[in-house]
Design brief:
It is a single chain. This protein is mainly alpha-helical and 111 residues long. The protein has one domain: 3 helical TM bundles of succinate and fumarate reductases.
Length: 111
């Protein structure tokens, strides 16, 4: 199981790396261009492409983060491994649900 989680975390990191670069580039572009929140929303609303981009980002983050937090908790706390695993499943599910809601809030409106 540990090897599989290790591989899954590395694969999610490899997918997220270019997404993070694009995301940071967009932030710099928006800040330098002086775009308002309303202007940004008008550009992303109804965009299936942005929904897919950030949807993939959310899925990768929801996989990647709980695996890392699980490793830290297993190493640094006396909590039972089964409790940590259950808590990380809940944490990952929460990240996924909240992330999907955020993506829909920014890109929603497409049919």
């Amino acid at each position: 199981m540990e090897t599989g989680l290790y591989a899954l975390q590395r694969v999610s990191a490899m997918i997220m790396a270019p997404l993070i670069v694009v995301h940071l580039g967009i932030i710099l572009y928006a800040m330098r261009g002086g775009l308002t929140a309303a202007e940004i929303m008008s550009r992303t609303e109804g965009s299936v492409a942005w929904a897919l981009f950030y949807g993939l980002f959310v899925v990768c983050a929801a996989v990647h983060a709980p695996i890392g937090v699980r490793s830290v908790l297993r190493e640094w706390t006396p909590l039972a491994p089964r409790l940590i695993d259950a808590a990380m499943l809940v944490f990952g599910a929460a990240l996924l649900v909240l992330g999907v809601r955020a993506v829909y809030a920014v890109t929603g409106g497409w049919s």
